[in-house]
């Protein structure tokens, strides 16, 4: 079967390794990125760089991995957007995390142009992509999904779940990221509780990871929590956006979400704590797992790195490959 030509927009922490997997799998990938230099290393591997989104109008599948729904709208319909070019891609595949209403509006506008819209938000970070541990949830027309299933599966090698028509994948991703916030906040709280009682963070988290409550997530975040490595995978601002989307969906569907609401306000405290730092913006640009520091601050603890590397499991997968 002939592989479809892929247009790709988004060369961030997630987008670059995702597109890279397609290039390595032999897909013809054409890339546009606002900052061209971020895409140039992919061109060295075989991707073709274009000068504007409009230059991607002739691809079979137009894929986006960007931060917000406004970004998606601008890239599709805005000045020099994809739809201002010569031609219309048959399928628009959006792997970003955006709201359901915005997604539905984009779907309707694309249908007027004769294009189908497939939503495929993902679970994981850039390291997960490289380790083959990324997963995806997908919704949209079943026939369109069948067409791009191999594309999505190449990127999200850990599993692809088709959940139905319309915006259902958006609801799944919102629910996923709500749990991400709740688990991270609780993990920070209990880790600080154990530390204040006298238990080293590594020892406590090793116990948790080996218990029935341990998970891929708790294991690969342990190194960050033990060694205070806040290399950014996902920012607090993006997590707050998704928590708000979750609470909004709960109000719309009459689902009480008290734990989510409490976690959202705990996350807000992280933004307040930033004002106490020498470089508030750097604190907010750091990884969301730095919420551990905010919990420690409120508990009267000053954290220090334990300088004790902890295997994430992702490195082991990469070595096996």
Protein model, in words:
- This protein has 321 residues and is α/β, with parallel strands linked by helices.
- It has 2 domains: 6-166, NAD(P)-binding Rossmann-like Domain (Rossmann fold); 171-320, N-(1-d-carboxylethyl)-l-norvaline Dehydrogenase, domain 2 (Orthogonal Bundle), CATH 1.10.1040.
- It is 52% helix and 11% strand.
- Helix 7 (168-197) crosses helix 13 and helix 10 (236-253) runs antiparallel to helix 11.
- The longest helix has 30 residues, at 168-197.
- The model is unreliable at 316-321 (pLDDT under 50).
Summarize this entry quickly.
The chain is α/β, with parallel strands linked by helices and 321 residues long.
Q: For the record, what CATH class of the largest domain applies?
A: Alpha Beta
Structural class per helix/strand content?
alpha/beta
**Percent helix range:** 40-55%
The CATH topology of the largest domain turns out to be Rossmann fold
Low-pLDDT windows of residues = 316-321
This entry's quaternary arrangement is single chain
Average pLDDT level: 95
Shape descriptor = globular
Radius of gyration: 20 Å
CATH architecture of the largest domain: 3-Layer(aba) Sandwich
- End-to-end Cα distance, whole Å, is 26 Å
Sketch the major β-sheet: 6 strands, parallel
Strand order within the widest beta sheet: 3-2-1-4-5-6
The strand count comes to 9
Number of domains: 2
Structure annotation, total helices? 14
Strand content: 5-15%
CATH homology group of the largest domain? NAD(P)-binding Rossmann-like Domain
- Give me the strand/helix succession: EHEHEEHEHEEHEHEHHHHHHHH
């Amino acid at each position: 079967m002939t592989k479809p030509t892929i247009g790709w927009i988004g060369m961030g922490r997630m987008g670059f390794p995702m597109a890279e997997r397609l290039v390595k799998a032999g897909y013809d990938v054409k890339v546009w990125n606002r900052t061209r230099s971020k895409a140039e290393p992919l061109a060295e591997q075989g991707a073709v760089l274009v000068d504007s989104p409009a230059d991607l109008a002739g691809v079979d599948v137009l894929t986006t991995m960007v931060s917000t729904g406004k970004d998606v709208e601008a890239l599709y319909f805005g000045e020099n957007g994809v739809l201002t070019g010569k031609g219309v891609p048959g399928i628009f595949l959006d792997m970003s995390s955006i709201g359901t209403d915005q997604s539905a509006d984009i779907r309707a506008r694309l249908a007027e142009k004769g294009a189908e819209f497939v939503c495929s938000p993902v679970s994981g970070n850039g390291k997960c992509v490289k380790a083959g541990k990324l997963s995806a949830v997908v919704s949209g027309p079943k026939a369109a999904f069948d067409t791009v299933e191999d594309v999505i599966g190449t990127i999200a090698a850990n599993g692809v779940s088709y959940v139905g028509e319309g915006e259902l994948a958006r609801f799944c991703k919102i629910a996923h990221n709500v749990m991400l916030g709740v688990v991270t906040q609780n993990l920070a709280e209990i880790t600080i509780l154990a530390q204040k009682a006298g238990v080293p963070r590594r020892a406590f988290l090793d116990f948790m990871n080996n218990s029935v409550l341990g998970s891929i997530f708790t294991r690969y975040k342990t190194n960050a929590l033990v060694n205070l490595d806040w290399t950014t995978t996902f920012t607090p601002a993006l997590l707050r956006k998704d928590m708000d989307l979750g609470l909004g969906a709960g109000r719309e569907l009459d689902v009480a979400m008290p734990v989510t609401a409490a976690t959202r306000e705990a996350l807000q405290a992280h933004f307040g704590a930033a004002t106490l730092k020498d470089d508030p913006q750097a604190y907010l640009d750091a990884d969301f797992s730095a919420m551990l520091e905010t919990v420690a601050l409120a508990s009267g603890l000053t954290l220090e790195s334990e300088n004790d590397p902890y295997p994430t499991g992702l490195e082991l997968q990469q070595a096996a490959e």
